[in-house]
Amino acid sequence: MVKNAEPANSQYTSGSTGTPKGVMISHANILSNMAVIAEASNADASTVFVSWLPVFHDIGFFGKVLLPIQHETRAQDLVTWAPAATARPPRQAACVPSCPAWSMFLF
């Protein structure tokens, strides 16, 4: 049985404020992150999360793979960077952004 405190993955900081370093992310960290996103978005079976982040990015993986599995929702890639399409509020597409850049979608 996996324990909450055990490492689930490792990720490396960019080093923008110092030397890049590896950080261990626990199962509890990931579950807590997903719980906060689900609660903040009022996720239910009809929720569709949208994100431009690739699944090899930690938040892309958590938000587009693990979160939809855990909460039995769906996820959609934002596959375009066309300004008009990117700036369109996700609520128009009945989607909830699954990324930390909420301000991009608030007008």
Describe this structure as you would to a colleague.
This protein is an alpha/beta fold and 107 residues long. The chain is built from three helices and five strands. It has a three-stranded parallel sheet with strand order 4-3-5, with helices on one face. A two-stranded antiparallel ribbon has the order 1-2.
Strand order of the largest sheet: 4-3-5
Strand % is 15-25%
Give the N-to-C terminal Cα separation.
45 Å
CATH architecture: 3-Layer(aba) Sandwich
State mean pLDDT (0 to 100 scale).
76
**What about the largest sheet?**
3 strands, parallel
Task: Tell me the CATH topology.
Answer: Rossmann fold
Helix amount, in percent?
25-40%
Radius of gyration: 15 Å
Put simply, the count of helices is 3
Poorly predicted sequence stretches spanning 5 or more consecutive residues: 99-107
Globular, elongated, flat, extended or rod-shaped: what is the shape? flat
Q: H/E element string?
A: EEHEHEHE
Overall structural class, as computed from helix and strand content, comes to alpha/beta
Give the tally of β-strands: 5
CATH class: Alpha Beta
- Give the domain tally: 1
Write a short abstract of this structure.
The chain has 107 residues and is of the alpha/beta class. The protein contains 3 helices and 5 strands.
